[in-house]
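User: I'm curious whether this sequence folds into something compact or stays loose and floppy. Could you predict its structure so I can see for myself?
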Amino acid sequence: MDSDIALTDFHGEHRAYDRDDGNFRSRFRQPSVTQREFTLPSADQGKDAWLFLAGCFMVEALIWGFPFSFGVFQEYYTAHEPFSPGPSGIAVIGTSSTGIMYLSCPVLFAVFKRWPHVRRHCTLVGLAINTLAIIAASFATQVSHLILTQGVLYAVGGVMIYCPTILFLDEWFIRRKGLAFGIMWAGTGVSGVVLPFIMSALLTRFGFRTTLRAYAVALMVLALPLLYFIRPRLPLAQTSLQRRLDLSFLRTTAFWIPQSANVAQGLGYFIPGIYLPTYATSQGMTGTEGTVMLALVNMGVVFGAIWVGALTDRMHVSSVMALCSFGAVLAVFVFWGLAVSMPMLCLFSLLYGLTAGGFSATYTGIVQLVKEQDTAADTGMIFGFLAVGRGIGALASGPLSEALLHMQTWKGEAKLGYGTGYGLLIVFTGITAAAGGTSFIARRIELR
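Assistant: Here's the prediction. I'll summarize afterward.
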């Protein structure tokens, strides 16, 4: 059998498990004495599945919420010693942590495909590395130290937790995969709503050293028990029966058309999360108001990830990507471009998070699209290369956004947000958001 796995339950019934839909096809026969007897928990339903998803949600919140709240640290590092005298490169801290996590995914997925027994052990090692990275960052005296610790080292630990979670979730949810991934990714948004306020208060009162050490302790205490629930659904002996690593899907248009849109969208997606707090203070608003805007972006991500994931289960993925892109373009060019006041920026933050923030929840639809064209494609590797596309955008957006902001284009010449010195950043973010919907146009052309 290729996609089927032979199982025997405790009643002596021999069953064939179909990987494609998560269902059993039964036929009675006497099992051999060498067969291992066990039952599998149900996919898409049941206590075990929902406890697993709840664990994924919380781990996602703790691991990804920290770098996605970096805008608060960006504002603090820029304004306080010992980093304020040479603030160049501060934006790279946040984008390197997210970017490297994304870029490392294919390597980890390939390792786990070859040695699946290390997947759960990796989550523990990754948590230890995350904790050490944050503690090490608390001793930094230069921006380069923060890039290496809060950026690069944190990313190494984070991806070691994230990749096994993706693979296990693919086993636990079959028919409701898009919704399940959306719920998991919403954890980043929930954490991004809460963490900016906590971090801002701690940074103001205690400084960055104590704040980072406190979060390191909290991360270990909260995440360690949750890793118990992050476990595979399929037995290790069965998941080891894998075909050789097949990357032929990289030659298909079903992958490259949405991947091109994914890379383009990623180039601008992270910019508001990095610069909204500093943009707010540059317009005379308080640090708290800037934190509110960052929290609103992440609140939008919560609902965006869920509704986009649910839509992906029901609509063609290119249509969902187009909807996300249209909403993001509207948010950027209208509500950010014309905004110099708190209410308009709040509207921008919420709408941007709801639309652009839900874009990555389309990945399950892209995976399905690719596997329709190349049935041998491995789900983990498709996810991994989609994450690479996102990572390219994340890494490039740090130095690119600093260069665009340094140009101060249209400052004092254009009106409203476009004339604040951030105008080029706003336009660039809007253009990349629009590029995220190009796969819809490509599909319309292909259907003609």
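Summary: Residues 44 and 173 are 5 Å apart (CA to CA). Confidence is low (pLDDT under 50) at residues 1-37.
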